[in-house]
Amino acid sequence: xPGGRGARREAPVGNTDxxxxxxxxxxxxxxxxxxxxxxxxxxxLRVGVDVGVHFAVWAPNAQSVSVVGDxxxxxxxxxxxxxxxxxxxxxxxxxxxxAPGALYKYHIVTRDxxxxxxxxxxxxxxxxxxxxxxxxxxxxxxSWHDAAWMAQRGAxxxxxxxxxxYEMHAGSWRRVPEQGGRWLSYRELALALPPYLVDMxxxxxxxxxxxxHPFYGSWGYQTTGYFAPTARYGAPExxxxxxxxxxxxxxxxxxxxxxxxxxxxxxxxxxxxGTCLFEHADPxxxxxxxxxxxxxxxxxxxxxxxLVSSAMYWLDKFHIDGLRVDGVASMLYRDYARAPGEWIxxxxxxxxxxxxxxxxxxxxxxxxxxxxxVQTIAEESTAWPQVSRPTYAGGLGFGYxxxxxxxxxxxxxxxRDPIYRKYHQGQLTFGLWYAFSENxxxxxxxxxxxxxxxxxxxxxxxxxxxxxxxxxxxxxYMFCHPGKKLLFMGAEFAQWREWDHETSLDWHLLDYERHRxxxxxxxxxxxxxxxxxxxxxxxxxxxxxxxxxxxxxxxSVLSFYRYSEPGxxxxxxxxxxxxxxxxxxxxGVVRAGFWQEILNxxxxxxxxxxxxxxxxxxxxxxxxxxxxxxxxxxxxPLAVLVFRAPPGSGG
Length: 651
Fold this sequence. Notes:
Oligomer: single chain
CATH superfamily of the largest domain: Glycosidases
Radius of gyration: 27 Å
CATH class of the largest domain: Alpha Beta
Structural class: alpha/beta
Number of domains: 3
Shape: elongated
Number of strands: 31
Distance between the termini: 57 Å
């Protein structure tokens, strides 16, 4: 199996029931088994003198289960499995002569004889290239070379570390126009992606789901193979090679993972054994009206074991450094996306899904128990409390949470004509009231550049010059704001088009200076963010932020300090959200001396007008903002300035 030490393992001769230990059975039934992939699925091994594959599948309502494949002419009578006699619903069997690469499915006939189907293996470690749907026996191992990264990744994923994430879709980052616009393979990505990320200064890459999915247009969010990387880009060991290469270039890897719903394709998990085995039978709980997909039954212990095992599989076998859990809000609320009368209240009459809450807590406990150096990240869009707080304190146990409120407020503000921004400054300042209630990631993700929303630069108001200036302003404001960073591919060079999963990014735009200027700024922002502890060390702590002036709404100017720790040398951030330059703009500051200007988004190298403060400003003994010393600044139009404080104490 992928990532293992070898392709074959020994099994008790003539007794495949012993494949499952009493502990396995107890944990499976209790919903606490974290590594079911070692037991279920197709495992190449030797039984006595015979070399073949051991198969195991959960189908408690089945009258019979057999393995059909290219090795037996897809005949349902050729290789029947036998059911364990303990009521577990597990069907097992060993088939000699089957080798890695063989195609197979499970032929399931239910007890009532009204239903039979050929189902892909829920625990398949490899799948056929879509639109074909068979599972593939997987026996290749992979020899990892990322020990140095694995030893340090805990520090690289920590709350005091700089985390700047490049979110991407593997099939549309770059394509090969000379070959019909085909996507890159995992191994081709391993050649092109790591050096680009290193050059741009990103610390992590987040892949939109790479688990197998039948519909390419779902971007991977309609998952059928919870243990199989999509075959579109290559074999499992090819993905391992990509991750290994990224690790050896110092890039962490985060994977989108979707335990919230699954599609109803005939070969998939839906109505698996003639019953709603994985999903709720009642559509008021088992069907998602927006996504038109099935919802997992988290109250079923075996389902919880399977999902937790899926998460652990990606961490175990693919060395994934973080799991971004999709659709958490839809899991927490029984009435999510439902009208009155279309949902069922919990036992107490409320809308909270207590079974899903319990599952998420169990998931995070299992992940951090086995892999304390990784992080789980919740895509959670509501005000649910303590998403990124420990389960022992009543939280859900995630390491981080996407700050969707910050994203919505900031993009809405930035989309306004600057003449009206002074009436809406609260959209920028409100986020600081709750900025440290969770461990936040600030996301400018794929969701904001699809379905007619327009690309980020198209959202910006004004003429072309102002649009580019506004985009530079947005990026710099995000990098200076408390919270880890996430930017979707293409935004870093101001792609005009909305993202289209069927085509490559518009890399030709880098032939134009303004687009190169935005890319250069993102590169420098990453360097600034990584190089200045004040911008990342206290991203999740209130001690890392202090307002200087949040009330200058008339001029649409914000100013604040960032600190690495109390008493440390601060950085001063000043943002002008209007296209008017401000001369003689005075700010009282915490220290006397020369404040060095270390970033100016209006610099000509970024495509700006070149206004600024000639590298820095010395304080004068003029009292402003309650401080005896102040700076007299030039604020360029639609720009962010960052100043380094003179060394000293206090402030």
